[in-house]
Amino acid sequence: MARYSSPTRRSWLIAPLIVCFIALLIHRFAQPPETLRPKIFVLGLSKTGTTSIGDALERLGYRRLGWRDIRSRHLVHTWANGGCDSLIDITQYYDAFEDLPWPFVYKEMADLYPEAKFVLSLRKDEETWLRSMSIHVGRGRWLPYTYFYGADTFPGNEHIMRESYRNHSQNVRSYFADKKDRFMEMSIDDGDINWDVLCQVAICPGGKVPATSFPTANTAASWNTGWFLNQ
């Protein structure tokens, strides 16, 4: 008897291939910029203000690679399959990085770029992050979340994802315990994510804090960008 895969299962297989193909085309014709600033890596997990920080760094003039760039999907799938060469290669084109998979390659990036700074964005506690993630993951199943958070569905896996958040924060803090001049924490719920704090690690034009309001991005109200963007 013939076997047919469901549309959902086929989408898991086909969408990553399409994304990777587009990402490779973009990367093939890219040229490294002549000058870059000391790099900044945002190590916060999903729903910790990473996109807002990335938007802010972009306003400060940083060449930024975040989740809005389709190549990030390719990098996620590459990392999930044990590859890091593509991540290392693409860092020569940018000086600011946020969202997956960057929070999970901080050791490699710290060794590769001794002058780089690292920002751990957080929520005020695990439960606040978990509530936000439950809405975020509830938009649709995305298999790579299993590699990062131990689960890709809600409800029923709260304890697994809660532990992943806790372990990530502890591991990052432990690694940078003797590298505090390269490391900073920012809590989105405590008002720490602002220009004054960010400009302690970022280069602000003229050495002045921007007079504009700090970006606020990727809120729950904006989560209707479509199924394809999560593939």
UniProtKB/TrEMBL annotation:
One of the Pfam families matching this protein, by short name: Sulfotransfer_4
Membrane-crossing residue ranges in chain numbering: 12-30
InterPro entries: P-loop_NTPase, Sulfotransfer_4
UniProt keywords, alphabetically: Membrane, Transmembrane, Transmembrane helix
Keyword Magnesium: no
Lineage: superkingdom: Eukaryota
PANTHER family for this protein: P-LOOP CONTAINING NUCLEOSIDE TRIPHOSPHATE HYDROLASE PROTEIN, P-LOOP CONTAINING NUCLEOTIDE TRIPHOSPHATE HYDROLASE
Protein's UniProt name: P-loop containing nucleoside triphosphate hydrolase protein
Source organism of the structure: Pseudocercospora eumusae
Taxon lineage: Eukaryota, Fungi, Dikarya, Ascomycota, Pezizomycotina
